[in-house]
Amino acid sequence: MLDSAFCWQAICARDAEQDGQFVFAVRSTGIYCRPSCPARRPKRDNVSFHADAAAATAAGFRPCKRCAPHGQSPAEHMDALVVAACERLNTTEQPLSLTQLAEHIGLSASHLARAFKARTGLTPKTWSDAQRRARLEQQLPMAASVLEAALYAGYSGTRALYQQPATLTPAQRRQRGAGERLRYSIAPCPLGLVLLASSDKGICALLFGDDPIALLAELQQRFADAELQVDDLDLADGLRQIVAQLSEPQRAAQLPLDIRGTAYQQQVWHALQQIPAGQTCTYAELAGQLDSHPRAVARACASNPLGLLIPCHRVIASNGSLSGYRWGLERKAALLKGEAGS
Question: Which BP terms in the Gene Ontology apply to this protein (predicted)?
């Protein structure tokens, strides 16, 4: 049974996350639409709600030509085009310019660039370069020579590799902890175990888990180029503040942060820090604030290395469900419950 009040609210918000969950029909026009349809909002008295396109058709309504509720939504169609662009970039032997890629996909270059960045956080060229570099790194240990690995990865030779001896940009090297010694400590907490890691600038990771070995492996994966050192003594006060905040959310930990991520990730993470304890925000609302896409926001949330301190647990789906959480939905539910009661 559809909740008419909830459905109407989704229509008023043009909530794309509800596309596929129901359709609405307008008696005065005989047309049914998706919740996100950009057409002028109808009068509430003229609207009925249906479980799907088949139900609306059976009731005598015809599909809207603008939002195509009986097929892919415009957002889903654009998602598919971006996926096709990624596949094209992955399979082409020669690098493609943005114009060439756009012609293959069937979009203007500017339209493709905006859609691609909204969904991946990267430009097509940056994404392609990162994929090619990842193939190189994967192949190098197994290849007979650097040239063989480079050719397999899609390079025309090794010249480009040695023209850029620093395989990572300074920002990327910092994200991975290149040349750094990071201190960490693991302690029990109300959510199982918590790992706190710090650089000379501040806390760079706060991870939850149940197994200390798995937690250390996650830290090593996030900061692959750093030297990791146990430091239970100096990090004890920080851990006490974290445990205190978990037990009493109003006692927010006051710790210096060393936040590492892409410009887009940091933009999302800064927005997360503006959500007060005890309140939540949907992925769609956050995407609207940032002029981005809910999926891109979700990916940035999933990449957050500072659980609790950057409160990605306060972002939920538009239907009120918890959606996802890097460290498990049970922990997300417990965090929200604790903050709601504080």
Answer: DNA alkylation repair; methylation
Whether 312 is catalytic is: yes
Domain boundary assignment for the chain: 4-63, 76-167, 174-247, 263-340
The fold of the 174-247 domain, in CATH, is: Double Stranded RNA Binding Domain (3.30.160)
CATH homologous superfamily, domain 76-167: Homeodomain-like (1.10.10.60)
Tell me yes or no: is domain 4-63 CATH 3.40.50.10260: no
The answer to whether the annotation marks 67 as part of a ligand binding site is: yes
pTM: 0.54
Q: Which of 7, 12, 33, 281 is catalytic?
A: 33
The verdict on whether residue 64 carries a ligand-binding annotation is: yes
Q: Compute the distance between CA of residue 14 and CA of residue 64 in angstroms, rounded to an integer.
A: 15
Per-residue pLDDT of the chain (342 residues; tens, 9 = 90+): 789 999 999 999 888 888 888 999 999 999 999 998 888 899 999 999 999 999 999 999 999 988 888 877 677 778 888 888 888 888 877 778 889 988 988 889 998 888 888 888 788 888 888 888 777 777 766 667 777 777 877 777 777 766 554 445 545 556 666 678 999 999 999 999 999 999 988 999 999 999 999 999 999 888 888 889 999 999 999 999 999 999 999 888 999 999 988 888 999 999 999 999 999 999 999 999 999 899 899 989 999 999 999 999 999 999 999 988 989 999 999 999 999 985
Q: How far is residue 333 CA from its own chain's centroid?
A: 19
Alpha carbons 71 and 64: distance in angstroms, whole number = 11
Strand locations in 40-133 (E): 47-50, 62-63
Whole-angstrom CA distances from 27 to 12, 22, 39, 60, 65 are 17, 16, 15, 10, 16
